[in-house]
From TrEMBL:
<dbReference type="InterPro" id="IPR023299">
    <property type="entry name" value="ATPase_P-typ_cyto_dom_N"/>
</dbReference>
<dbReference type="GO" id="GO:0016887">
    <property type="term" value="F:ATP hydrolysis activity"/>
</dbReference>
<dbReference type="Pfam" id="PF00122">
    <property type="entry name" value="E1-E2_ATPase"/>
</dbReference>
<keyword id="KW-0597">Phosphoprotein</keyword>
<dbReference type="InterPro" id="IPR006121">
    <property type="entry name" value="HMA_dom"/>
</dbReference>
<feature type="transmembrane region" description="Helical">
    <location>
        <begin position="368"/>
        <end position="396"/>
    </location>
</feature>
<dbReference type="InterPro" id="IPR023298">
    <property type="entry name" value="ATPase_P-typ_TM_dom_sf"/>
</dbReference>
<feature type="transmembrane region" description="Helical">
    <location>
        <begin position="141"/>
        <end position="160"/>
    </location>
</feature>
<dbReference type="InterPro" id="IPR036163">
    <property type="entry name" value="HMA_dom_sf"/>
</dbReference>
<dbReference type="InterPro" id="IPR027256">
    <property type="entry name" value="P-typ_ATPase_IB"/>
</dbReference>
<keyword id="KW-0472">Membrane</keyword>
<keyword id="KW-1003">Cell membrane</keyword>
<keyword id="KW-0547">Nucleotide-binding</keyword>
<keyword id="KW-0812">Transmembrane</keyword>
<dbReference type="InterPro" id="IPR008250">
    <property type="entry name" value="ATPase_P-typ_transduc_dom_A_sf"/>
</dbReference>
<dbReference type="Pfam" id="PF00702">
    <property type="entry name" value="Hydrolase"/>
</dbReference>
<dbReference type="InterPro" id="IPR001757">
    <property type="entry name" value="P_typ_ATPase"/>
</dbReference>
Length: 748
């Protein structure tokens, strides 16, 4: 227990539906003395802050949050693990802050405070109407007053608490003024109706936020609660989130894998759809990586835990999506700014409408105050405020279920505006598994060439290096012992063998060294024209021979490129490979290209492109990190899951080039959805602004317009939950693609 002094604290806050709600919570706690580093996330339902308990107690923080209308509970700190074991009873399972929420059924709508407010005000309203039928006029009047006051009380309390936290212009304040004003001018029935409809609107916002949140939480629910841990020759059931790295678990056929780990025994088909969004079995044997949440289809697997629960891939994905909201879209920031000006403006305008016509033209006070109150309700920016976050949360959730991750609204907006898509070649457009296809020796034998080459490359991690070593292995050739091996980035590698310097790498590494053999040159050119990468081995500056390797394009690469073109985007391939090889591969895929780029050239190429365009860069996220960072949107694409999620703005979890188009389609659909939402929200406001001023529509129509707009916006945003990023062309994608001659078969 941190007794005195400052400490980091964590709470779970319920009832937040959007960035505006998060801002209210932030505003309410930030003004407390001794509070700093406030971090509120509505998707993750989290409040984190640094607290100086000498000045403010945690209970005071909780009270401040409750006062503005949200639920709050401290997040339990995880008990220390006993050293060398984890003998903890199941009931000690309390969530650690960093682990995404444990499986937890969302409360039914009528069990939430908002739901109760709707039911309460609805019943009161119905009762008052009933009373109106049976009671004499005067009494029924008071029934409506009572209904209004009871329904308004929680709203007014929040409005005051926020005003005290220096947020006077809130939706709650507009509501409070309008409803109590209506009581004052003797329109209690409308006041009661207004309060009820407002409650309905709030409830709907909550439901839409909850839906999106569930979509993401559903992912973490895929990780089983328990695991069968091997211990002392027996297995026993333990909580999955207590597994420690290095422990061994058994996964029976039909069970879900409880952790990220490595298979140490057994062979089985594993369905990784929870992680990649693609329901395809991949075959796993000893040494293969498996991911928490995947389904073991066939046979018993023994798996060694390689990541703690809080760090497993699913937890990282969920966390990433939940945190994504902090990167807010420019549109969203604009709307926030807009509503900050809009609300005070509406209050000012309402004031004018209330006093000017009666004073200046001697018109009826009651009539114009009534219109002013209606104007206040028109001023409720609920639908507008929720128009962006509702769409974005739905899109993030849909993306996560399809293996398309985007880190927030800002990324979605940038992705939607992409004009150029730059691909790294190796591992992105190609499989990233080059194989040796040809050997050609000048002086020595093929075996000697491979032995030396493997010696130089044995320490290197470059895909070409691994392919050369694999080929030597396959032929049973031992690598020659080498010393002082070093990589020449973008060119090759070098080492000493038997005291002689050996260099292996791109032909340009050999240029200008030693005599040129035209026949050898011609052979290099011919191999490169076939789309093969040629590396030349030099001993003491003389070419000894060459090794040609080919990295096959991904089956759907041509299709993916064609889809991008059909969407009006300009795809381009960036590669360190030589121009002839690059041209051969690019031609097959129908993509523009830039070849022979050193790693820093790739960054420069992205910067150049970015000058007049919006560039999305796709790479593996590991050695392309600088280029990804230089692009407007950096997308990491990786074999299922070893994607460097954290280094990029977005990630594609399936190894599919067509998912790039899917990602952009989803982003575009989201932005279109947002534009529709803004049009709905502002359009309805505009219409009813006019009708209100002319006295055609009254109070409850004004709030109905707002609630109605909220409903429409919410429903419209929910459409994104069923959006299919794949777009058309599914059949085309499955068709065999002879490397090269794929015809674009996609329409937009
Ligand atoms: N370890 C190595 N062994 C042999 N050749 C190498 C090695 N490293 C680099 N090269 C040579 O340098 C070239 C460029 O390498 P670089 O790593 O920049 O690009 P790449 O990763 O192979 O391709 P891409 O840029 O398309 O991802 C390779 O095509 C190869 O000719
Ligand atoms: Zn909200």
């Amino acid at each position: 227990m941190a007794a005195q002094g400052t400490a980091k604290r964590n709470w779970r806050v319920t009832g937040m539906d959007c960035g505006a709600c998060a801002a209210k919570v932030r505003g309410a706690v930030a003004r407390l003395p001794g509070v700093s580093d406030v971090d509120v996330a509505f998707m993750a339902e989290r409040l984190r802050l640094t607290l100086d308990e000498a000045q403010t107690s945690p209970a005071q923080v909780e009270a401040a949050v409750r006062s503005v209308g949200f639920g709050i509970a401290p997040k339990g700190a995880r008990p220390e693990r006993p050293p060398g074991g984890f003998v903890l009873p199941d009931d000690a399972l309390d969530p650690e802050p960093e682990v995404p929420e444990p499986p937890q059924a969302a409360p039914r709508w009528h069990d939430t405070p908002k739901g109760r407010l709707v039911l309460g005000t609805g019943l009161l309203l119905a009762a008052a109407w009933g009373a109106d039928l049976v009671l004499p006029g005067g009494l029924a009047h008071w029934a409506f007053v009572l209904a209004t006051l009871i329904g308004l009380a929680p709203v007014a309390r929040r409005a005051l608490a926020m005003a005290r936290a220096r947020m006077p212009f809130t939706i709650e304040m507009l509501m409070t003024i309008a409803a109590s004003g209506a009581l004052v001018i003797g329109a209690p029935e409308e006041a009661a109706l207004v309060v009820f409809l407002f409650a309905v609107g709030e409830l709907l916002e909550g439901i839409s936020a909850g839906k999106a949140r569930d979509g993401i939480r559903a992912l973490s629910r895929l990780v089983p609660r328990t695991a069968r841990l091997e211990q002392g020759g027996a297995t026993r059931e333990v909580p999955a989130d207590r597994l420690q790295v290095g422990q061994v678990v058994q996964v029976r056929p039909g069970d879900r894998v409880p952790c990220d780990g490595q298979v140490i025994e057994g062979r089985s088909g594993v369905d990784e759809s929870p992680v990649t969004g693609e329901s395809v079995q991949s075959f796993k044997g000893p040494g293969a990586e498996v991911f928490a949440g995947s389904i073991n289809a066939e046979a018993l697997l023994r798996v060694r835990v390689t990541r703690p629960a809080a760090d497993n891939t699913i937890a990282r994905i969920v966390r990433l999506v939940e945190e994504a909201e902090s990167a807010r879209a420019p549109t969203e920031r604009f709307i926030d700014r807009f509503s900050r000006i809009y609300m005070p403006a509406v209050v000012g305008a309402a004031l004018l409408v209330a006093v000017v016509p009666p004073l200046a033209f001697g018109l009826d006070w009651g009539e114009w105050i009534y219109r002013a109150l209606a104007l206040l309700l028109i001023g409720c920016p609920c639908a507008l405020v929720i128009s962006v976050p509702a769409a974005i949360t739905a899109a993030l959730s849909t993306g996560a279920r399809h293996g398309l991750l985007m880190k927030g609204g800002a990324v979605i907006e940038a992705a939607a505006r992409t004009t150029h898509v730059a691909f790294d070649k190796t591992g992105t457009l190609t499989l990233g598994r080059p194989r040796v296809t040809d050997l050609h020796v000048q002086r020595c034998t093929e075996a000697a060439l491979l032995a030396i080459a493997a010696g130089v490359e044995s320490g290197a991690s470059h895909p070409l290096a691994r392919a050369i070593c694999a080929e030597a292995d396959r032929r049973g050739i031992a690598a020659a012992p080498a010393s002082g091996a070093r990589a020449l980035p973008g060119l090759g590698a070098e080492a000493e063998i038997d005291g002689v310097t050996i260099r292996i790498g791109a032909p340009r590494l050999a240029e200008g060294r030693g005599p040129v053999d035209p026949a050898f040159q011609a052979r290099v050119a011919a191999l490169e024209a076939e789309g093969k990468t040629v590396v030349i081995l030099q001993r003491a500056g003389r070419a000894e021979g060459l090794i040609a390797l080919r990295d096959e394009p991904r089956a759907d690469a041509a299709e993916g490129v064609a889809q991008l073109r059909a969407m009006g985007l300009a795809p381009v391939m960036l590669t360190g490979d030589n121009p002839r090889t690059a041209a051969a591969i690019a031609e097959g895929l129908g993509i523009a290209h830039r070849a022979q780029l050193m790693p820093e050239d790739k960054v420069a190429a992205i910067r150049n492109l970015s000058a007049g365009a919006r560039v999305m860069m796709i790479g593996d996220g590991i050695n392309d990190a600088p280029a990804l960072a230089a692009a407007h949107v950096g997308v990491a694409m990786g074999s299922g899951t070893d994607v460097a999620l954290e280094t990029a703005d977005a990630a594609i979890l399936r190894d599919r080039v067509t998912d790039v188009a899917g990602q952009i389609r989803l982003a575009r659909a989201t932005m279109a959805n947002i534009r529709q939402n803004i049009a709905i929200a502002l359009g309805l406001k505009a219409v009813f602004l006019v009708t209100t001023l002319f006295g055609i529509t009254g109070l409850w129509i004004a709030i109905l317009a707002d609630t109605g707009a909220t409903v429409l916006v919410t429903l419209n945003a929910l459409r994104l939950l069923v959006f299919r990023p794949e777009g058309p062309g599914k059949a085309a994608r499955q068709a065999p693609q002879p490397a090269g001659r794929a015809t674009p078969s996609v329409s937009t």
